[in-house]
């Protein structure tokens, strides 16, 4: 092998630069091998060729060849002189394997008997290289004087075409050539063993819950006439035909994982996992904010356990919606806004991290805080919705003093905190109200028992747990001496408390 191994990645990259714009992708199979046999280094015809490896186009880089390369249709190999513009020569020879002819086919100077006249388009599909968008060229090897095969000043062959013999300027295939290659790949029997659907994938929404549906299709297998057979896991259902390039699928239950599978041409299988959209709780968020505390800032982190590796979250869209019914007749104060927001809309904010700081101001009203995640594919999902009253809690029965908590010792010693919760007698649990119906409460109950979460002052969660008793001990907290930490506690009744502790 004359081509140095370190050049292989470069050659593969350049090959795909030539072929990819036309929907043809070249994949390397295995690594490389040396064949130590002088007989293959022949400089005379007939050429000898080593045995093929099945299922791929074999590229043999040979030290001594009279031409830069040689290949034919109906053969799954090409021979290339290793030191001669390897990328362009390799692309040229692969073109032959994929059923392309030279652009100067039948134009060996001085004979022009079988050459298509560049001004006669009716001949283009039957003469020359039989492709209409490649003007007739001449073979510079047999026309050393660069004479034109036609005495026409308007004759302008495409010397930059990959299938010409102008090696110094070859860099592209024509659309007609690409179509001819793709026809060969999809129909020629000798090429079926090299077809790969490695680039094919299932496209469609990545998250779907019960009662929802979505359209899914196969990309990367868009030429020829491949067959498709779709199947889904037991908690999904295919609506309509399952043998086309696209299907409609709905979610029927939450049991088990959700997997979509398509089998292409009976042998190639592609799968896609679909997750249910998760609804995160905004921890660190007050249900009620007293405006007497002034313009308080609040760190609002969200749960990030459900990371979708296939379509990761790239940003979050936060939105505050104000109730149209004010809780007070005198509202000349500051309305809530996102700290650090640079947009003209103070009620919307985009963050790249999973937290924001909100200044709730001192304007007495009710607010709805929504958080959407935006994924890499451009999809947008609502992942949290919370209600906040600022000024007075008359529309929220989960008022500030609904329960009392004792956290001791404070300052915290030896990473251990004791928590006691004193709850009032309460027979009906608290609900969050719905801003769309201000006089009623919705049915989104707080299902947790006693949930405690600890954050540092940068909003990073350092501890979280749920306790089913009203008295418990937290041990082995890794707190930095002298630092302040925020302790948030939610109860099953819907109450919320927040305290600051100091590490000793």
Distance separating the two termini: 70 Å
| Largest sheet composition | 5 strands, mixed
Tell me the overall shape: elongated
Number of strands: 27
The order of strands across the largest sheet is 11-18-17-13-15
The number of helical elements comes to 3
- Residue stretches low in confidence (pLDDT < 50, at least 5 long) are 110-114, 394-401, 426-448
Kindly name the structural category. mainly beta
Task: Name the CATH superfamily assignment of the largest domain.
Answer: Immunoglobulins
Helix coverage percent: under 10%
Q: Which band does the percent of strand residues land in? A: 25-35%
- CATH level-1 class of the largest domain: Mainly Beta
Write down the Rg: 35 Å
Total domains: 4
Question: What's the CATH topology name of the largest domain?
Answer: Immunoglobulin-like
CATH architecture of the largest domain: Sandwich
Mean pLDDT: 76
Order of helices and strands: HEEEHHEEEEEEEEEEEEEEEEEEEEEEEE
């Amino acid at each position: 092998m004359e081509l140095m191994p370190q050049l292989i990645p470069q050659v593969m990259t350049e090959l795909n630069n030539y072929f990819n714009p036309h929907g043809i992708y070249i994949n390397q199979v295995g690594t490389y091998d040396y064949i130590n046999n002088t007989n293959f280094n022949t400089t005379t015809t007939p050429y000898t060729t080593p045995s093929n490896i099945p299922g791929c186009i074999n590229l043999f880089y040979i030290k001594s060849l009279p031409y830069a390369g040689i290949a034919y249709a109906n053969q799954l190999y090409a021979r290339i002189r290793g030191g001669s513009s390897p990328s362009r020569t390799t692309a040229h020879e692969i073109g032959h394997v994929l059923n392309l002819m030279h652009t100067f086919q039948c134009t060996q100077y001085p004979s022009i008997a079988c050459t298509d006249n560049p001004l006669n388009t009716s001949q283009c599909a039957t003469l020359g290289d039989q492709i209409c968008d490649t003007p007739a060229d001449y073979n510079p090897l047999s026309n050393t004087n660069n004479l034109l095969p036609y005495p026409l000043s308007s004759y302008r062959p495409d010397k930059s075409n990959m299938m010409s013999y102008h090696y110094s300027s070859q860099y592209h295939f024509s659309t007609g050539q690409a179509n001819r290659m793709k026809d060969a790949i999809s129909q020629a029997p000798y090429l079926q063993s090299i077809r790969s659907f490695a680039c094919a994938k299932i496209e469609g929404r990545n998250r779907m819950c019960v009662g929802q549906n979505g359209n899914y299709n196969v990309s990367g297998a868009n030429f020829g006439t491949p067959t498709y057979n779709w199947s889904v896991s037991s908690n999904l259902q295919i609506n309509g035909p399952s043998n086309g390039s696209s299907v409609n699928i709905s979610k029927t239950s939450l049991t088990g994982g959700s997997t979509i599978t398509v089998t292409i041409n009976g042998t190639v299988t592609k799968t896609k996992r679909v997750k249910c959209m998760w609804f995160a709780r905004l921890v660190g968020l007050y249900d009620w904010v007293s405006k007497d505390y002034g313009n308080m800032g609040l760190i609002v982190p969200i749960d990030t356990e459900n990371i979708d590796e296939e379509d990761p979250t790239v940003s979050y869209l936060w939105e505050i919606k104000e109730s149209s019914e004010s809780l007070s007749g005198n509202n000349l104060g500051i309305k809530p806004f996102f700290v650090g927001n640079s947009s003209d809309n103070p009620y919307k904010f985009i963050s790249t991290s999973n937290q924001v700081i909100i200044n709730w101001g001192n304007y007495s009203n009710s607010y709805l805080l929504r958080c959407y995640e935006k994924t890499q594919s451009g999809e947008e999902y609502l992942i949290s919705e919370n209600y906040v009253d600022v000024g007075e809690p008359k529309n929220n029965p989960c008022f500030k003093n609904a329960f009392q908590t004792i956290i001791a010792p404070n300052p915290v010693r030896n990473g251990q905190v004791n928590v006691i919760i004193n709850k009032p007698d309460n027979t009906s649990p608290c609900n969050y109200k719905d801003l769309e119906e201000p006089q009623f409460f919705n049915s989104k109950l707080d299902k947790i028992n006693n949930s405690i979460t600890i954050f540092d002052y940068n909003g990073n969660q350092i501890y979280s747990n749920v306790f089913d008793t009203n008295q418990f001990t937290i041990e082995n907290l890794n707190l930095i001496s002298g630092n302040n930490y925020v302790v948030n506690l939610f109860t099953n009744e819907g109450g919320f408390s927040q305290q600051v502790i100091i590490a000793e």
